[in-house]
Structures are given as structure tokens and as C-alpha cells.
Amino acid sequence: MKKTILFAALLLSVASLLQAQVLKTKDGVIYFNPNKDQKNTEYSAQTKEATGVLDADKGTVALLVGMKTFHFNNALLEEHFNENYLHTNKFPNATYKGSLTGFNKDMLQKDGVYNLSSSGTVTMHGQSKPFNAPVILTIKGGTAVFKCVFNIKAKDHDIEIPALVQGKLLEATPLEATISFKTK
Hints:
184 residues, alpha+beta, 9 strands
């Protein structure tokens, strides 16, 4: 009987070690402000509902962002964003699939700050484009926070911006993504 219990415990231990470490979140934050004057937040928006998956063994990451989860300070702007620019009924999500260069799963075990880079593909509004950007990984108290600041060009994703507002907006919109995973 003791041998059976010991064997079962050993088997469970080995199985847990062999299982890939996959972390998930549903509360990633993405903020953008396309205004030429970055102090002006008239056209800025944010979501706190980005879904992320990190395969720590492979160093890969995937994000899914429902475009209708972006909220603006003005309901009319939010409506225009969804109906006239992003056509969210036809293209409801933006995705990112890529890998983290300089990352290893051991980083998740000790508090610290690490400079990484990420490369992969962003798909938005039906258009897929290559993506490369620096990432800062902060590990503290059982949480891994990936922060990435990068630019997206509307024209790269076939998003038409009306001439009426083009003069107020940057050609490349800066986005800030902050994705947190519980490591313990």
C-alpha cells in the first residue's frame, strides 16, 4: 500500500513538472492617444479587457483585444470608432502572436526588471503586419507585468481617417500595452 501511494505521488510530481507553464490573463490594459498634442486626450481610449496567454516554456505570447472594449471619454467618438473606422461588426478583434527575445521562464521566479523584445504579427481590421518592439518585464510579488509601448499606423491596417480630423491626429498612434500575469 505504501509503495502504491509513493508511486502515485511520484507520478503526480513528474506530471506536474512535465506540464508546460502557461499563464493566462483577461484584464490586460491597452491605452492609445492619437492626438498630435499628447496632452490632449480628446480622441484617446482604453480597454482593461485584453486577453493574454504566455507560454513560459516557449517564450511565446498571444493577445486578443475586443475592439468594442475600448472606451472613450465621449460616447459619440466611441460610436464612430466602432462603426466608421474599425468596423467592429466585421472585424471584432485585434490579435498579436509572437515571441519574446531575451526571456526565459526562470525570470518568473525572482523579483526583478528585465529588458526584452517582442516580435510577431499584429492583425487588426483584417490586415496582418509584422511587429517588433521593446518590452519591459517587471516581476514583483508573484506578478509578471509586461509593458510595451509601440506605434500603429491606421493606413497599415486600411483604416480610413476622415480629412476633418486628420490634421489633429498623429500618423502613427502610440499604444501602451500593460499585460499582467499571476506567476504563483
